[in-house]
Specification:
With 391 residues, this protein is of the alpha/beta class. The protein has 14 helices and 16 strands. InterPro entries: Aminotrans_V_dom, PyrdxlP-dep_Trfase, PyrdxlP-dep_Trfase_major, PyrdxlP-dep_Trfase_small, SP_NH2Trfase/AEP_transaminase.
C-alpha cells in the first residue's frame, strides 16, 4: 500500500505503473529479432486482443475478425497510420471535433485528404442530425471516444450506426477509454480502434496499439502511406510477432505484463472499478462546492476514466497558486489545455488506482482550495466519496 507521502500521479497519462510492469523493463536486453522478443510480442498481442474485443459488461468474448498491432510510437502515430493508409488526396473525410484530440485527428486528416469537419464547442455534444448529413458522402469518419481534454464520452455507437448506413470507414481514438471502459469494436462498426500504452492500459509511454479489422486491412494502401506507417507491412510482420523496424524491447515487455494484469482483473471488474472511482471523484469534488465540467446532453456522457472540474472564480484569477499547493502535497494533476488553461483541472483514474489514492486526490484538492482561500469541507467530501467507493 503506497504511503501518503509517496508521489501520486493523477494526470490523464502517463499513469502509475505496477511493480511488475516496472520490473519488466529491467530485464536483460535481447535482440528485437530474437525468438525471445517474438514471444513477448505474442504475449502483448494476445492481451490486446482480449482488451480490444472483451470490453463488455457481460464478459462475453466477440469472435475476433481483426488484428492487434503494436506500434513503436504513441497514439498520434496510430491516428496518422489509420488515416494515411485508408485515404488519398481524393478521399472525403469527416472529422468530428469537440476537443483537442478531435482537432488533432482533423489536422492529421487535412494532410492526407479532403476534410469536412463537424465542430462544436469543446466539451459540447454533437448534433447527430448534422453528423448524419456530413457522413452521407464520406469515405472515412474520425472520432474521439473519450475526449481527454474535456472529460466527455462521445457517442461512438450512434455515429458507428451512421457510418455503417453510408458505408464509410470508421476510425476511433479510444486512447483513454480502451482498457478502462466499454468499447465494442464489432457492435459499434469500428474499422480501426486506437489506444495508447500510457493510458488505461497502465503501461509506460512510447508505444501504442491498433485493432485493425479485416475490412480496414482490405482497404489499406501502404503505397500512399508514410514509409514508417505502412499498415500492410505492419500487418505482415505482426503475423510473425514482429514489427517492420527496431522495436523498443523494454516497452514491449512492460506492455505484455500490463495487458496480462488487465486480463487477471477481468474487463467487467475493471470497468466497474473505473466507473465507481470516477463517480467518487465527481461526487467528492461536488461536495467541495466545485462545478463539474462540462454540461452535456445525451447521448454524450461524462468520462469514466478522467474527471474535469471547473476552477472556482477565485482560483481562475491566480491558478498557479492552487496548482502549486497541489504540487507541495506531492500530487500531480493536470490543468486545462489550450483555451481551457486556467479554467479547469483534470484528474485521471486510469490504470490501477486504489480507493485510498482516489480519496487522497480529493483531499489534496480540498486542502489546496482552503489554502488559497476557497473555503470547503474536506471531511464531508471524503465521506461522500467513501460511500461510493464502498458500494
Amino acid at each position: 500500500m503506497p504511503d501518503d507521502d509517496d508521489f501520486l500521479l493523477l494526470n490523464p497519462g502517463p499513469v502509475p505503473l505496477s511493480g511488475n510492469v516496472r520490473r519488466a523493463m529491467d530485464e536483460p536486453m535481447v535482440s528485437h529479432r530474437s525468438a525471445e522478443f517474438e514471444a513477448t510480442y505474442e504475449r502483448a498481442q494476445q492481451g490486446l486482443d482480449y482488451v480490444f474485443t472483451q470490453s463488455t459488461l457481460d464478459d462475453h468474448s466477440h469472435d475476433s475478425n481483426g488484428t492487434s498491432l503494436i506500434l513503436n510510437g504513441t497514439a498520434t502515430m496510430g491516428m496518422e497510420m489509420a488515416v494515411a493508409n485508408l485515404t488519398d488526396a481524393e478521399s472525403d473525410v469527416v472529422a468530428l471535433v469537440n476537443g483537442k484530440f478531435g482537432r488533432r485527428f482533423k489536422r492529421i486528416a487535412e494532410r492526407h485528404a479532403r476534410v469536412t469537419p463537424v465542430e462544436v464547442e469543446w466539451g459540447q455534444s454533437f448534433d447527430l442530425d448534422a453528423v448524419e448529413q456530413a457522413v452521407a458522402d464520406a469515405d472515412l469518419v474520425t472520432m474521439v471516444h473519450n475526449e481527454t481534454s474535456t472529460g466527455v464520452l462521445n457517442p461512438v455507437e450512434a455515429v458507428g450506426e451512421l457510418t455503417a448506413e453510408h458505408d464509410a470507414l470508421f476510425v476511433v481514438d479510444g486512447v483513454t477509454s480502451i482498457g478502462g471502459d466499454v468499447f465494442r469494436v464489432d457492435d459499434w462498426n469500428v474499422d480501426i480502434a486506437i489506444t495508447d500504452a500510457q493510458k488505461a492500459l497502465a503501461a509506460p509511454p512510447g508505444i501504442s496499439a491498433l485493432y485493425v479489422t479485416e475490412r480496414a486491412a482490405d482497404a489499406a494502401d501502404g503505397d500512399s502511406a508514410p514509409f514508417y506507417e505502412d499498415l500492410e507491412w505492419h500487418l505482415r510482420k505482426a503475423d510473425d510477432h514482429q514489427t517492420p523496424f527496431t522495436s523498443s524491447v523494454p516497452l514491449f515487455r512492460a506492455l505484455a505484463v500490463a495487458v496480462e494484469e488487465i486480463r487477471e482483473e477481468g474487463m467487467e471488474s475493471r470497468i466497474d472499478r473505473h466507473r465507481r472511482q470516477s463517480q467518487a471523484f465527481r461526487a467528492g469534488f461536488e461536495a467541495l462546492g466545485l462545478k463539474r465540467f462540462p454540461d452535456i446532453e445525451p447521448p454524450t456522457s461524462l468520462s469514466n476514466t478522467l474527471t474535469a472540474i471547473e476552477l472556482p472564480d477565485e482560483v481562475k484569477a491566480a491558478p498557479e497558486e492552487f496548482f502549486g499547493a497541489i504540487t507541495e502535497r506531492n500530487v500531480s494533476i493536470s490543468g486545462g489545455q489550450a483555451h481551457l488553461g486556467g479554467q479547469i483541472f483534470r484528474v485521471s483514474n486510469m490504470g490501477h488506482l486504489s480507493s485510498a489514492q482516489v480519496l487522497r486526490g480529493i483531499r489534496t484538492v480540498g486542502e489546496a482550495l482552503n489554502e488559497v482561500g476557497v473555503e470547503c469541507d474536506v471531511e464531508s467530501s471524503i465521506e461522500t466519496a467513501t460511500e461510493i467507493l464502498n458500494k
